[in-house]
Amino acid sequence: MANQTRLRREVFRKMFHALGLVIVLGYSFLRVYIGQRGALLALTGLLIALLEVEYVRLEHQFKLPGGVDRLLRSHEKDRVTGTIWLVAACIISFSVFDYPIAFLSFFFVIFGDMFASLVGVRFGTKKMFRKKSWAGFLAGLTINVLSGVFILPAQPLVYLSMALTASVVELLTSKLDDNFTVPLFAGFVGQALVSLAWLLG
Question: In the chain, what's the furthest Cα-to-Cα distance?
């Protein structure tokens, strides 16, 4: 019963977490119509707005409406939420990495992390590292690889390296926020491989 309650809570959290896709797609839309600089400016404006919300929540003990507070993990009660780190990672990644690499890195953090968490809660009886399970790790890695096949089909070495990096970083991340670490590490590995191939070619 406790596991079922935890699973329902995690499903609800991950549905909210999937809204990160709206941010990535919103950037992609704006990038086409107003250019990269304008789209990055919009992301920065979103980050500032979210920081204002966090200021009110953390400094003035403001309760978020609609029961959003219940979606927060225990460590987010008195620290900024993962959304702040996600938007910050978006700004850095889309500024530094090629667009397809940055785009793929956020599929890892949105969908790979989602499946790793849900499968881990439901089927993760055998632990791999800390509270992370083999089932969750392999589920996340599978989704990451499939995302790579979909977004970078002509570059298997790049997407496989990125997928493995994302899964390992997600596995090892505890104190830091994986909304920030996963896209940056995976994107860096992918961009480094692309740059190396260009130099050697």
Answer: 57
Average pLDDT over residues 173-194: 94
Q: CA 71, CA 18: separation in Å to the nearest integer? A: 13
The b/e string for 116-147 (b: 16+ C-beta within 10 A; e otherwise) is bbbbbbbebeeeeeeebbebbbbbbbbbbbbb
The per-residue pLDDT for range 58-104, each reduced to its tens digit, is 887 777 655 555 555 555 566 788 889 999 999 999 999 999 999 99
- Of residues 15 and 181, more confidence is placed in 181
Around 191, how many Cα atoms within 13 Å sit in the side-chain half-sphere? 18
Output the pLDDT for position 118: 83
Helix (H, G, I), strand (E, B) or coil at 9: helix
What is the per-residue pLDDT for 124?
67
Q: Is 42 exposed, middle or buried (0-12, 13-18, 19+ CB in 10 A)?
A: middle
* pTM of the predicted model as reported, rounded to 2 decimal places: 0.86
Q: What 3-state DSSP class applies to 88?
A: helix
| Residues with Cβ within 8 Å of residue 11, at least 6 apart in sequence | 118
Helix (H, G, I), strand (E, B) or coil at 133: strand
**Residue 83: is it exposed, middle or buried by C-beta count within 10 angstroms (0-12/13-18/19+)?**
buried
Cα 49 to Cα 138: distance, rounded to the nearest angstrom: 36
Structure tokens at 173: 């991340």
What's the DSSP call for residue 176? S
